[in-house]
Amino acid sequence: MSDVMYPEVMIIGSGAVRVATVGDSxxxxxxxxxxxxxxxxxxxATKLGHHYQVFNFGLxxxxxxxxxxxxxxxxRNAQLSLESEADIVIIMIGTNDSRAPYWNKERFIKEYxxxxxxxxxxxxxxxxxxxxxxxxxxxxxxLNNDIVRTELQEIIPRxxxxxxxxxxxxxxxxxxxxxxxxxxxxxxxxxxxxxxEMVYAKIxxxxxx
Length: 209
Prior knowledge:
The chain has helices at 25-28, 35-38, 40-48, 76-82, 105-120, 145-162, 170-174, 189-207, and strands at residues 10-12, 17-23, 52-56, 88-92, 127-132, 166-169. It is an alpha/beta fold.
């Protein structure tokens, strides 16, 4: 049975083009009354249409770094994402790494790059998109918005550009927009809609070149 910490993978659509969404609670859709409809991967699937199949591999509370309490790559959903034969991979992770006990800039850079390379080495040779996580309005969850603002906005684009990948800055999209948030971290349906629209525009821009 699926639960919040160890959910089953949500699959939306049945098209031939497979999209893997990878990340933490912001991908999972934590706090939404209807995540099957309102999580950004679900909204993205609706926008992409019937030629696509979107997999939500999000896991709440997970971090990138291997020294954190819940490293994403040690989870079953992460392994399934690497076995998904996806044509497109969308990665949004790092918010939970901003906690003081976890944050180590050098380790984050190293392990984020290794994460991206694992998806690039999939046999399906996917297009990989990196997302700078959204603004964090409060510190109530122990998160540090300064890390997201100053470090992740610099690190993630650099890793993307070093590998010739596209990246999307969700921080600048959401900064100061409290209407996007339900509890000081997690996104409302409106916030998820904004994320989905930006990801959709990037994917369509690439495919129309």
